[in-house]
Design brief:
This protein has 148 residues and is of the alpha+beta class. Helices cover 29% and strands 26% of the residues. Strands 1-2-3 form a 3-stranded antiparallel β-sheet, with no helix packed on it. A 3-stranded mixed β-sheet has the order 4-5-6, covered by helices on one side. A hairpin with a 5-residue loop joins β2 and β3. α1 crosses α2. The longest helix has 23 residues. It is globular and about 45 Å long. It starts with 19 loop residues before the first strand and ends with a strand. Pfam families: OsmC (PF02566). It comes from Streptomyces iakyrus. InterPro entries: KH_dom-like_a/b (IPR015946), OHR (IPR019953), OsmC/Ohr_fam (IPR003718), OsmC/Ohrsf (IPR036102). This is Organic hydroperoxide resistance protein. Belongs to the OsmC/Ohr family.
């Protein structure tokens, strides 16, 4: 897939707002306004922490994989396919960038055992256009999609 001219993917209407608050950054905790989320956050050992808690990259991976999977199910349903048994896993990498800050890279692994490879590719490409996480990250971070 080639990136063409910039497409405006901003919402035309806000249908839902999620709210979360961080306390203590990467060595603290995060909570959601509705109380559904209350997690300890800790630096992973690879970044010098004890790893005794989740981290922002795991939370991003969980959000992106579930959002992309939902987009995949949606486009599958629109075309008349039942994607029961499909999964999406996300790996989120963190590292320094050229501007003395940090950047992310994402690898999505998609398993579609109920459809052939050509159809799987078409559905994944369509989901990548529908998914809000894909739309938010397009052009900002490298996203690799692997079909397996």
């Amino acid at each position: 897939m080639t990136d063409g001219p910039a497409v405006d993917t901003r919402p035309t209407k806000i249908m839902f707002v999620a709210e979360a608050t961080a306390h203590g950054g990467r060595d603290g905790y995060v909570t959601s306004q509705d109380g559904q989320l209350d997690l300890k956050v800790a630096m992973p050992p690879q970044l010098g922490g004890d790893g005794n808690g989740t981290n922002p990259e795991q939370l991003f991976a969980a959000g992106y994989s579930s959002c992309f999977h939902n987009a995949l199910i949606l486009v599958g349903n629109r075309e008349g396919y039942d994607l029961t048994g499909s999964t999406v896993s996300a790996k989120v990498g963190l590292g320094p960038n050229r501007q003395r800050g940090y950047g992310l890279a994402v690898a999505l692994s998609v398993s579609l055992p109920v459809v052939d490879a050509d159809l799987a590719t078409r559905l994944v490409d369509a989901a990548h256009e529908v998914c809000p996480y894909s739309n938010a990250t397009r052009g900002n971070i490298d996203v690799t999609i692997l079909l397996g």
